[in-house]
């Protein structure tokens, strides 16, 4: 690559990790019933498409899941951790207030010196992190980035609130993004609208040595649903336009895995056949920033998504935030 040649970024490896404790809807419903919280497998499947989720053991933290996913992505890319020059972790459930989970991951990988920071954009976090890494690679600020989405959402769930606690799960996904003289990432777009802070939030914080406010997740599900359906179609069309592509060019749509009805609604509005939609929400639940890289890695490893395929990634979530990345794998 000469210094004047355009510089792009390309995913060269993917990895993911789910904690071993898989909890079916029936098992979760049984646990909740002990506390007088009523739900059912039928309600959860019909309204969300979720059949099971994974929960991390109490002593496992966000950076542990990130480490397992990162190692798999590095192995797939055949890249030594020592050669990574940028680590970005997208998470809303970090190990600590600070340092960042990215710094803790760097330490667990046994490397040091490269830039490492977290991105906090809730369920849009991975799409945000990937866009930042792509921008840094294009400008020459980095050449080999490790981009991770990792969450332990089970830690911030209110198990007395059936409208939220049945929806989320834990897990991590990662990609290695490297400089390339061919794209790679074709286009991306990020958005936020802080007017909708209240519809999806964890309002508490740490102050004066105490937790101030409610430290558990609050969501107005129907309000999030309505906003998500609208913005996901708009941002998908926008990244396609930017790249000079059309919906016919999309081999796979990998949206944030929150609710099968939102995902199918987006595919339908875009006139994409349902067999181009990657679905992992049934087995993972909503893993927030981890959902897109988890779904990407599973579909790559299963042989469904192949090198050279055009893939549309989409995120949407608290903030309110949303965004999309269009790429050739
Ligand atoms: O990751 C960030 C993005 N997040 C999302 O995209 C989430 C978006 N929202 C959603 O996915 C859906 O709005 C939910 C799955 C959260 C809720 O589905 P809904 O079809 O919008 O249901 P609803 O909130 O309108 O509730 C319908 C009924 C209510 O009962 P009534 O008032 O009709 O008697 C709820 O109390 O379902 C009841 N309900 C439940 N019943 C059994 C709510 N949660 C449960 C539950 N089990 N777990």
Q: Can you describe this structure?
A:
The two termini are 20 Å apart. This protein is globular. The strands form five sheets. It has a five-stranded mixed beta sheet, sandwiched between helices. Strands 8-15-14-13 form a four-stranded mixed beta sheet, sandwiched between helices. A two-stranded antiparallel ribbon has the order 2-3. The longest helix is centred in the last third of the chain and has 23 residues. It is 33% helix and 26% strand. It is α+β, with helices and mostly antiparallel strands and 329 residues long. It contains ten helices and 15 strands. It has two domains: 173 residues, Thiolase/Chalcone synthase (Peroxisomal Thiolase, Chain A, domain 1), CATH 3.40.47; 144 residues, Peroxisomal Thiolase, Chain A, domain 1. Strand 4, helix 4 and strand 5 form a beta-alpha-beta unit. The site of oxa(dethia)-CoA has 20 residues, from helix 2, helix 6, helix 7 and strand 14.
